[in-house]
Amino acid sequence: MRRINSDIAIALLLLAFCAVLFYETFQFRQSARAIVSSSLWPRLIIVSLAALSLAYLIQSILRAVGGEEEVTERSFVAVGQWLRRNQNVFWCFGLFAIYVSTLPFLGMLIGSFLFVFSALTVMGPNNLRSHVTNIAIAFVAVLGVWAVFTYLLGVMLPQGRILRIY
What we know:
By secondary structure, this protein is mainly α. It has two domains: about 5-75; about 80-150, no CATH class. About 70% of the residues lie in helices and about 0% in strands.
């Protein structure tokens, strides 16, 4: 009998973590005047994370049963290669850290637009057509999210010091 590999163990831990988080959503206080339950969005995110963790578990089990060797772990020989392969992850975390730290000053609209545009630009091709497309995607996505939260859900998003519109 084969040992359980680390991928299966991590997938099981993620599923257990999702179960605990989902259970905790039943402890949220419900407002009498709320249209949408305060636990709806966390539950949607937790269910999505659980579905991805389940897919990860199934993939790990199939890989363990098929007897494939972990080629990817052996390919990360040098730190430079590993950093190059994961540069988009580091860019996204770095850009998100800048976004969160500048949110009180820039506000949700300007900060989110800059974050989405920067993330698309860093990870995509570097030409004029791509930049114009990235600007359009960032503009539509941020205004759409802002409109949904502001007008449909009634959530007041951070204004920032630069642009005060409400």
